[in-house]
Design goal:
Blueprint lengths: L1 E3 L1 H11 L6 E5 L12 E2 L14 E4 L13 E9 L13 E5 L11 E4 L4 E3 L2 E4 L21 E3 L7 H9 L4 E5 L3 E7 L3 E2 L10 E2 L1 H12 L3 E8 L3 H9 L7 E5 L10 H7 L3 E7 L8 E5 L2 E6 L3 H19 L9 E6 L11 E8 L4 E3 L17 E5 L11 E6 L1
Parallel strand pairs: 1-17, 5-6, 12-15, 12-16, 13-14, 16-19, 20-22
Antiparallel strand pairs: 2-11, 3-10, 4-6, 4-7, 5-9, 8-9, 17-18, 18-19, 20-24, 21-22, 21-23, 23-24
Helix pairs in contact: 1-6, 3-6, 4-5
Bound molecules: adenosine monophosphate (AMP) and magnesium ion.
Length: about 400
């Protein structure tokens, strides 16, 4: 297939991607960003016991029905309980227990009066108003009831979810294996940062850009480095990774130039071509293929094209390979603060900065696919449909938030 729509490209790749079968058990403290591999239910109520929500006195509400400021209820303080203690006895009518926030409600009591509202003299507590049954009373299971589905398989463990698992005493969690990605960049013009710059050469910025994104997405990335513009050598390099990768991700060599080796490489691998060319600018020349159990995505070498197609096409695929549901991009309509004086024959994505406070979107001066610097500080892509004319400031556009 050639020149397919972006949405179709994503669908095709997602249909080919296997949800990871391998799982692993890891310490909860290392689980941030990982995908949960099984449903998690609550083993017990949390909090596990009825408790006091404040510092005060646990009492029997019925003892205070006639209490007034002038004629307070007088209760004998029989002890004290801090959070973590456990008062094993029972409280009888006419008695009270000093209790701190988080302390287990002692047997017999059904309310807590705030410390600030009482007076204490000679071991006696004076309660100046009546309390209701279960006033200032926190029930066992108020946060989580035993058996509640806490986190579903496929959800990503973020800080609140990790906190919830900890509240259930889980020290370990079963998660999907990280997606294994092999990352390389084709191009005889490429140098690795650290090497001296020489005439005709540029640094391999794509590799670092994408490695950083893969790290953010929680992938296990194997860096192949620079892949020469030689089909045999390139195919050999990629083939050697097939058994250890879910995805071969490369940039460069996918257009129609003399050194655009990826077309030849997939024949040599051998791999089945899924599609070439996606109806969008930047990044039209893009190749997707399948070799054995590994998928391949070869993006344009132009850094901003590589970045855009990575976000729009590779990222949903990586989500699926990680066992999580691909997150749709939030979309908003926003007014342009700048003109965009080019008409768009085909669908075009423009790097942009969306300002939440004003609901407006601005476009940096430089937006060619070969330039990366102006993408710094951008948080959005403007999605211009094919056939959009020149745009002026104030025009409303569709904005996709990255
Ligand atoms: P290609 O897609 O191989 O035709 O490359 C398109 C443009 O992107 C050329 O100007 C390349 O020099 C440049 N390019 C290719 N790969 C990289 C890379 N890894 N980092 C930075 N620029 C690149
Ligand atoms: Mg090239």
């Amino acid at each position: 297939m050639e020149g397919i729509e972006l949405e179709q490209a994503v669908e095709l790749l997602l249909a080919k991607a296997n949800v990871p079968k391998k799982t692993e058990e890891i310490p909860l403290s290392e689980a941030l960003g990982r995908t949960l591999a099984e449903d998690m239910r609550a083993d017990f109520d949390n909090p596990p016991f009825d408790r006091s929500p404040l510092d005060g006195y646990a009492i029997i509400a019925a003892d205070t029905v006639d209490a007034t400021r002038e004629k307070p209820a007088r209760l004998r303080i029989v002890g004290e309980e801090c959070a973590g203690d456990f008062f094993a006895g029972a409280i009888n009518s006419g008695e009270a227990l000093r209790i701190m926030t988080g302390g287990a409600m002692p047997r017999g009591t059904d309310a807590v009066i705030r410390q600030e509202d009482v007076t204490v003299a000679d071991g006696m507590l004076e309660v100046p108003y009546p309390l209701r049954h279960h006033e200032n009373y926190c029930f066992a299971g108020e946060d989580i009831k035993q058996g509640t589905l806490l986190i579903r398989q496929g959800e990503v463990l973020d800080a609140p979810r990790i906190g919830v698992l900890a509240s259930q005493g889980r020290a370990k969690v079963k998660v999907c294996r990280r997606p294994r990605i092999v990352l390389g960049g084709t191009g005889d013009e490429l140098l690795q940062p650290g090497e001296p710059l020489s005439p005709g050469k540029i640094y391999n910025s794509n590799l670092y850009l994408l490695a950083a994104r893969l790290q953010e997405l929680g992938a296990e990335t194997r860096i192949l480095g620079i892949i020469p513009d030689d089909p045999e050598e390139a195919a050999e390099k990629l083939r050697s990774c097939l058994d250890r990768a879910d995805l071969l991700l490369t940039t460069g060599g996918v257009s129609v130039g003399k050194k655009d080796v990826m077309h030849e490489v997939i024949k040599l691998l051998p791999a089945q071509r899924l599609f070439w060319g996606v109806q969008m600018k930047p990044g039209y020349p893009m190749l997707a293929y399948a070799a054995e159990n590994t998928l391949g995505v070869a993006l344009s070498g132009n850094p901003f094209a590589a970045y855009t197609t990575f976000e729009l096409i590779a990222r949903p695929l990586i989500d699926k390979l990680a066992g999580r549901t691909p997150r749709p991009f939030p979309r908003v309509r926003a007014a342009l603060t700048d003109a965009f004086p080019k008409a768009s024959h085909g669908r075009r994505f423009i790097r942009a900065h969306y300002e939440i406070a004003t609901g407006t979107v601005s476009i940096p001066g430089q937006h060619s696919s070969g330039s990366l610097f102006s993408a710094v500080g951008c948080n959005a892509l403007i999605d211009l449909p094919a056939g959009t004319g020149k745009l002026k400031a104030g025009d409303k556009v569709e904005v996709l938030l990255l």
